């Protein structure tokens, strides 16, 4: 498995520093990093706004599970604590594995609760789709279709309208 799209988000503490730490920890595998967006909280409204971005990562040696391990390692390094009572609650750093392509460029589909691929809620999340679209205008979420079409769905309109680009907060050259 060699290529992955990772979503990074933070809404506690120094949000930009947490995102930068994720990019730094991913190291040379982080090939492209999107711009940063300020986004309304999804799934649990009573929490601060998030900063979100997307990383396109590549490593010929990495399995799909390796991407999950790397995502978890980033979260742990940034002091992520889980509140079992709040599924979509606030966090210093969230790193989700959105989709993985194998060495032959085929998308990986996996229905395993430990690692579901593509990420089961990615198609509902403007904070994932919009920064990914910036990096891949012709991109598609395997199993769901073109990013641009997913973002145009009526259910995402309010989230798209409420998110703001933050060009003042760059993650570039962090990889
Ligand atoms: N594609 C995936 N990316 C990341 N974690 C996943 C994925 N599929 C399943 N998981 C599992 O989900 C568990 C919970 O992850 P986490 O606490 O980050 O969820 P969350 O960020 O609160 O919600 P969400 O997964 O909707 O973003 C992880 O321990 C992981 O094993
Ligand atoms: N805007 C936004 N909302 C979220 C985010 C996130 O990264 N950005 N992550 C969550 C984790 O499940 C829950 N809600």
List its traits.
binds adenosine-5'-triphosphate, Alpha-Beta Plaits, binds 2-amino-6-hydroxymethyl-7,8-dihydro-3H-pteridin-4-one, two-stranded antiparallel sheet, 27% helix, alpha+beta, 10 strands, 175 residues
Write the layout of secondary structure elements.
Blueprint (H helix, E strand, L loop, with lengths): L2 E8 L4 H12 L3 E4 L3 E3 L10 E9 L5 H14 L16 E8 L8 E3 L2 E3 L8 H10 L4 E2 L3 E2 H5 L5 H6 L1 E2 L10
Antiparallel strand pairs: 1-4, 1-5, 2-4, 3-4, 3-10, 6-7, 8-9
Helix pairs in contact: 1-2
Bound molecules: adenosine-5'-triphosphate and 2-amino-6-hydroxymethyl-7,8-dihydro-3H-pteridin-4-one.
CATH architectural grouping = 2-Layer Sandwich
Measured distance between first and last alpha carbons: 20 Å
Structure summary, number of beta strands: 10
Number of domains: 1
Main structural class: alpha+beta
The rough form would be described as: globular
How would you characterize the largest beta sheet?
6 strands, antiparallel
SSE string, helix = H, strand = E? EHEEEHEEEHEEHHE
CATH topology: Alpha-Beta Plaits
Query: Count of helices?
Result: 5
Oligomeric nature of the chains: single chain
Instruction: Determine the mean pLDDT.
Output: 95
Protein name: 2-amino-4-hydroxy-6-hydroxymethyldihydropteridine diphosphokinase
Pathway: Cofactor biosynthesis; tetrahydrofolate biosynthesis; 2-amino-4-hydroxy-6-hydroxymethyl-7,8-dihydropteridine diphosphate from 7,8-dihydroneopterin triphosphate: step 4/4
Keywords: ATP-binding, Folate biosynthesis, Kinase, Nucleotide-binding, Transferase
Organism: Actinoplanes siamensis
């Amino acid at each position: 498995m060699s290529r992955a799209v990772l979503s990074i988000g933070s809404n506690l503490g120094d949000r930009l520093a947490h995102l930068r730490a994720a990019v730094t920890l991913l190291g040379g595998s982080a090939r492209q990093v999107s711009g940063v967006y300020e986004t309304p909280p999804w799934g649990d409204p009573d929490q601060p706004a998030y900063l979100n971005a997307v990383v396109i990562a590549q490593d010929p040696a990495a399995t799909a599970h390796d991407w999950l391990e790397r995502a978890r390692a980033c979260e742990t390094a940034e002091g992520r604590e889980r509140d079992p009572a709040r599924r979509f609650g606030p966090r210093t750093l969230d790193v989700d594995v959105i989709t993985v392509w194998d060495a032959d460029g085929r998308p990986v589909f996996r229905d395993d609760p430990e690692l579901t691929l593509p990420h089961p809620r990615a198609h509902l999340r403007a904070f994932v789709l919009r920064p990914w679209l910036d990096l891949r205008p012709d991109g598609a979420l395997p199993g769901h279709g073109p990013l641009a079409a997913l973002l145009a769905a009526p259910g995402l309109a309010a989230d798209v309208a409420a998110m703001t680009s933050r060009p003042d907060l760059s993650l570039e050259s962090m990889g």
